[in-house]
Amino acid sequence: MTQTLLNRRIVVAELLDQRADLIVVSGLGSPTYDVMAAGDHDRNYYLWAAMGSAAMVGLGLAMSRPKDKVLVVTGDGEMLMGMGALATIAVQSPKNLSIAVLDNGHYGETGMQRSHAGLGVDLERVANSLDFDYGSRISDMDALRDFRQRIHASNALNFATIKVDTAEEARVLPSRDGVYIKHRLRTALASAG
Amino acid sequence: MPHTDQSEQLEVDWKTQIYRVLKDFDIRHVAYVPDAGHSTAIDLFEADDKVNSVVLTTEEEGIGYLAGAWLGGQRGALLLQSSGVGNCINTLALPAGARLPLLMIVTMRGDWAEFNPWQNPMGQATEAALKLMGVRCWRADSAQDVEPLLRGAATMAFEGDEACALLLGQRLIGRKEWN
Description:
Distance between the termini of chain A: 48 Å
Helix content of chain A: 40-55%
Number of domains of chain A: 1
Number of domains of chain B: 1
Structural class of chain B: alpha/beta
Radius of gyration of chain A: 15 Å
Strand content of chain B: 15-25%
Distance between the termini of chain B: 40 Å
CATH class of chain A: Alpha Beta
Number of strands of chain B: 6
Order of helices and strands of chain A: HEHEHEHHEEEHEHEH
Radius of gyration of chain B: 15 Å
Structural class of chain A: alpha/beta
CATH superfamily of chain B: Thiamin diphosphate (ThDP)-binding fold, Pyr/PP domains
Strand order of the largest sheet of chain B: 2-1-3-4-6-5
Strand order of the largest sheet of chain A: 2-1-3-4-8-7
CATH superfamily of chain A: Thiamin diphosphate (ThDP)-binding fold, Pyr/PP domains
CATH topology of chain A: Rossmann fold
Oligomer: heterodimer
CATH architecture of chain B: 3-Layer(aba) Sandwich
Number of helices of chain B: 8
Largest sheet of chain A: 6 strands, parallel
Largest sheet of chain B: 6 strands, parallel
């Protein structure tokens, strides 16, 4: 591995900088802690289970809230479990949905076993083969900032594999009360109209 | 409200009633893995521009999708075959944990006059598996039961934020013809 890997906390903080009304869905494990570490928000929906579902929850939000922008932040293992969802999402092709996979090539929550992504599977190539409007592998901050602009442009179905290192970060835990988080998000969206 | 007068109609058109009842409940999203028993409803929803139809690669995708749609303020339903219930089990933690409404309409295999014994294990376990995961279940084996049972399941899903399933038995759907 010759490339320098990014730090996941810095990546997520950059993606969520000046997020405005962005809706964010996080996949279980480290991505949920990373999104929380960037700042709790009424428009965050943290998943603590249902592995493989983060992208589909994002699709449901994008289709029911076509005027809002939706970002899914998940890990390579979680995305691999829901890889078929990428085909479902490509068929729907909402232009207000972006998926950011924090790819450290490992299952970090369970002891750093290597994942398929760490064994050579490039998820952005899956997205590209499904005709996502944009699918890219990101390994530097300039490309990451460009991806952030794309999220807010809300004119394309976007997918990025963001190569991050395996350094363990402090667990910053959001509420595990799924009912509370549900009501908080629904209330925020309903009051926005 | 569209309504079928059962006293004047010998054969209740339960396949169309599924569409009509879901429209009465303001369903805006239908997620499905195709099944012959659902083909009428799927065709009607695909032709309805007020409903977003989402074909899935596997049934549990629909649970995540409908959770997102509900978080966004809109109702949906999941159409699937009993074999697909098995694919959903772990993902049913999502509606349970967040107390989200979920309405599933399940066409049965392996419960009556089944030609293919490979369908029997999941078909026989479908209702118990759903109940183990906290899904409330009703079962329709005759055409007259579909409309009221679906109305009841939808009421309890959307008024009570509960996961509810209506199972459509093979005696209702008809045995699959193999020749």
